[in-house]
Write a sequence for this structure.
């Protein structure tokens, strides 16, 4: 007995149903600010800086993103980046109170800032 080649039409019928292509996801609507105009979620949520951090960024509640921005303003204004490796921050007296050591990398900075934000 010789096996017959399957007809292409019946071959497709024997296969399990192909998965339907997923419909493209709709882009999430951007979060809008409340009527006051300021967002209060995540990085925008106001936090209270410690007294040591307040010497640099001010003592009023401020958003985390603004804390980091003000820190970089202070670092650049006082030329505290290591000239050989700009990723390293050489602490002055104020920053040493926050970092707990003389030099930190820019990647460590946020970890040290978190300890000074409530």
């Amino acid at each position: 007995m010789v096996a017959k080649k399957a007809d292409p039409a019946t071959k497709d019928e024997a296969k399990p149903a192909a998965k339907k292509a997923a419909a493209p996801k709709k882009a999430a609507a951007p979060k809008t600010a409340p009527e006051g105009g300021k967002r209060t979620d995540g990085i925008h949520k106001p936090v209270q800086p410690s007294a040591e951090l307040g010497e640099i960024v001010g003592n009023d509640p401020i958003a985390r993103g603004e804390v980091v921005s003000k820190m970089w303003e202070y670092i650049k204004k006082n030329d505290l980046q290591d000239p050989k490796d700009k990723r390293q921050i050489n602490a002055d007296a104020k920053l040493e109170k926050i970092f707990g050591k003389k030099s930190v990398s820019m990647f460590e900075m946020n970890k040290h800032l978190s300890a000074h934000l409530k």
Residues 44-114 form a domain with the MDM2 fold (CATH 1.10.245.10). The chain has a mean pLDDT of 82. The first helix runs from residue 8 to 14.
